[in-house]
Amino acid sequence: MSAIREDWVPSQAEFDAFARLSGDDNPIHVDPDFAARTRFGRTVAHGMLIYARLWALMQRAAPGARLNRQSLMFPAPCFAGDHVELVVEPLGGHRYVMRAVRLTDGAELLTGEAELA
Prior knowledge:
Helix content: 25-40%
CATH architecture of the domain at 4-10 and 44-116: Roll
Number of strands: 5
Structural class: alpha+beta
Distance between the termini: 17 Å
Number of helices: 4
């Protein structure tokens, strides 16, 4: 199987909906006035929102698969309106690399690996 890719432009509405669903209503994600006063200058996506989008791609790569383990890092923030490329790529066996990259500057927003059962 080759890599699966998908473009995504996250929105503040998605941040707000994920906050309601997850209970993570940290103002850095949902309050533009608060976020404007932080080092980021605007709201930032929940890391798990990015991962959820990648997990949906993973399910396309391996329908019905169950997660055995994963490792995730979030090197750079993801903002509403960013043009993001999501990538799931097989490493061999049941292992996959996951990446979310901001296309305007190449910043890695999420890097990780997953092992499926």
